[in-house]
Write a structure and sequence with these properties.
Elements: H1 2-22, H2 27-36, H3 39-52, E1 59-60, E2 67-68, H4 76-80, E3 88-89, H5 93-105
Antiparallel strand pairs: 1-2, 1-3
Helix pairs in contact: 1-2, 1-3, 2-3
Length: about 110
């Protein structure tokens, strides 16, 4: 009976570790927190880390196709060439990929 509980305990911790990897957290850290403390502490750690993650916003220059991780008013590369191009928020790589595919397919 103890063997069954031990197997169930380790299985729950392995599932928590996989969930931690999906949230870009360290798999072993979540596994050992759940294993040494309790699976409930592992869930608490996952929720706490998810709430404290900061999202990075990127900005995109449509003229030179450069992506900046810092908010700026105009593209510094285009300003060196004498052009004033405003940076727009970068939505996702998929958005840019679809633009490139439509350009190459025509």
């Amino acid at each position: 009976m103890i063997l069954l509980y031990t197997f169930l305990y380790i299985t729950i911790n392995a599932i928590l570790s996989i969930l931690g990897v999906d949230n870009h957290q360290e798999m072993l850290k979540v596994f050992f927190i759940g294993l040494l403390l309790t699976p409930v502490a592992g869930i608490g750690y996952l929720i706490f880390r998810k709430r404290n993650q900061k999202r990075i916003h990127f900005y995109y220059c449509e003229q030179c196709d450069y992506i900046f991780p810092v908010k700026m008013k105009n593209c510094p590369i285009c300003e060196e060439q004498g052009k004033k191009v405003k940076l727009s928020p970068y939505k996702s790589p998929y958005h840019l990929t679809t633009k490139i595919l439509t350009l190459t397919s025509t």
